[in-house]
């Protein structure tokens, strides 16, 4: 029952993670998932080698390597990353201003660092990896009654219970308390620094935005709705076109009742789309206006110029980054 409940909660978390449309909620879910992963890692996977020279590398790797992996995963899962790649591939990043590039990269990096910073912060606050990494560097002179001739080889074995002489085991609580104090101090300073940077970044974003608060909220809602509708419509279009090609090859196609109804209703409108049109609606977009009316996305811009029949203006406008 406990295992089933755990699986159920994990599925709920994953569902919320991918359905969340608010950046703050999304980042909060990322942080909570990272905390859960870090806790599980400490319980099941963290084992200090208790060996001079290895402790330091293992402790730092336990903090740094998962953080680096989480950062790279965050960059790869961010749609803006691939929008930027498409922009540079299709249009060679023409007219890419420094301000626009800074804003875009800031968005990508800002979303990607949530998980690694959470991992590093929780690791430091727990103190386990830091204690393993630096126990061999503790100054024996700072411990009353500790043998001065004892080297780092003995100090490195302290995190592993029962690996040091009995007469020295009484020093371990003092060593552990000192190292955890240092680790948690660094962790809290990291938390404070991140909080300050986030606050300043939000202030700069609000002050530099050309839109009011309500219009920004509407723009975010529009992007979310457009993305959802685009993906669902693309799925229906792909199914209809695939059904046509499969039927041409086999002479028939096996469809469910829902798919048959979908094909009957939208089959005439599901015409092939030219690569040029795909390229025009693919890439980076920040914000533009046309005669005072906002254009909220590349698709919105494409539809506006296409409706007006201004193909020359569309070709010129679509090359603009922002």
- Integer count of domains: 3
Overall structural class, as computed from helix and strand content, comes to mainly alpha
**Main β sheet profile:** 2 strands, antiparallel
- Give me the number of helical elements: 14
Q: Give start-end ranges of low-pLDDT stretches.
A: 1-21
What gyration radius follows from the Cα positions, in whole Å?
28 Å
Q: Globular, elongated, flat, extended or rod-shaped: what is the shape?
A: elongated
Mean pLDDT: 80
Q: What separation lies between the terminal Cα atoms? A: 53 Å
Topology order in helix (H) and strand (E) letters:
HHHHHHHHHHHHEEHH
- β-strand number: 2
Strand proportion: under 5%
| Widest sheet: strand ordering | 1-2
As a percent range, the share of helical residues equals 55-70%
Question: Quick summary of this structure?
Answer:
By secondary structure, the protein is an all-alpha fold. The protein is 70% helix and 2% strand.
């Amino acid at each position: 029952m406990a295992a089933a409940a755990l699986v159920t909660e994990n599925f709920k978390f994953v569902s919320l993670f991918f359905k969340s449309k608010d950046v703050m909620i999304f980042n909060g879910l990322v942080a909570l998932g990272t905390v859960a992963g870090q806790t599980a890692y400490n319980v099941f996977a963290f084992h200090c080698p208790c060996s001079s020279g290895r402790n330091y590398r293992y402790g730092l790797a336990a903090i740094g390597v998962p953080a680096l992996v989480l950062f790279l995963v965050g960059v790869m899962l961010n749609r803006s990353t691939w929008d930027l790649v498409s922009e540079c591939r299709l249009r060679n990043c023409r007219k890419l201003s420094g301000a626009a590039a800074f804003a875009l990269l800031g968005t990508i990096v800002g979303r990607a660092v949530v998980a690694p910073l959470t991992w590093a912060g929780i690791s430091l606050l727990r103190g386990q990896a830091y204690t393993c990494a630096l126990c061999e560097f503790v100054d024996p002179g700072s411990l009353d009654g500790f043998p001065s001739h004892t080297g780092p080889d003995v100090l490195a074995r302290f995190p592993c219970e029962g690996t040091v002489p009995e007469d020295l085991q009484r020093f371990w609580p003092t060593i552990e308390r000192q190292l955890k104090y240092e680790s948690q101090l660094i962790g809290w300073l990291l938390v404070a620094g991140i909080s300050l940077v986030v606050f300043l970044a939000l202030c700069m974003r609000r002050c530099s935005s050309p839109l009011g608060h309500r219009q920004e909220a509407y723009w975010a809602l529009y992007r979310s709705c457009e993305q959802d509708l685009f993906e669902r419509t693309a799925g229906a279009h792909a199914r209809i076109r695939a059904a046509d090609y499969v039927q041409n090859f086999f002479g028939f196609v096996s469809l469910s009742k829902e798919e048959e109804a979908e094909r009957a209703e939208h089959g005439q409108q599901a015409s092939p789309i030219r690569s040029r049109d795909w390229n025009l609606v693919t890439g980076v977009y920040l914000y533009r206006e046309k005669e005072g009316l906002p254009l909220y996305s590349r698709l919105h811009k494409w539809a506006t110029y296409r409706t007006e029949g201004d193909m020359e203006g569309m070709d010129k406008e679509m090359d603009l980054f922002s």
